[in-house]
Amino acid sequence: MLSGFRRTETRRGREFSVQPVSGQRAVKQYTCPGCSGTVDPGVAHVVVWREDGIMGPQADLSGRRHWHTHCWRIS
User: Fold this and answer.
1) Which end of the chain has fewer beta carbons closer than 10 Å to its terminal beta carbon, N or C?
2) What CA–CA distance (Å, rounded) separates 27 from 14?
3) pLDDT tens figures, 7-60
4) DSSP string spanning 51-63?
5) Do 1 and 27 contact (CB within 8 A), yes or no?
């Protein structure tokens, strides 16, 4: 259900994968960890997960979160 190009970003000394999700592919409701608001179906947003966790890539991916694009930008 992801779309767009995944990129790597560094925040507070940690690396994160950031994957855009188009509004057409956003089919579930999520809670944004940035603002605690709802990311509704049909709203374009980003999925973010750590790339440098000590438990390895699978744990990092399972810890992914859906953010409003704006909330991620200002975090």
Assistant:
1) N
2) 29
3) 999 998 988 999 999 999 999 999 999 999 999 999 999 999 998 777 777 777
4) SS-TT-HHHHHHT
5) yes
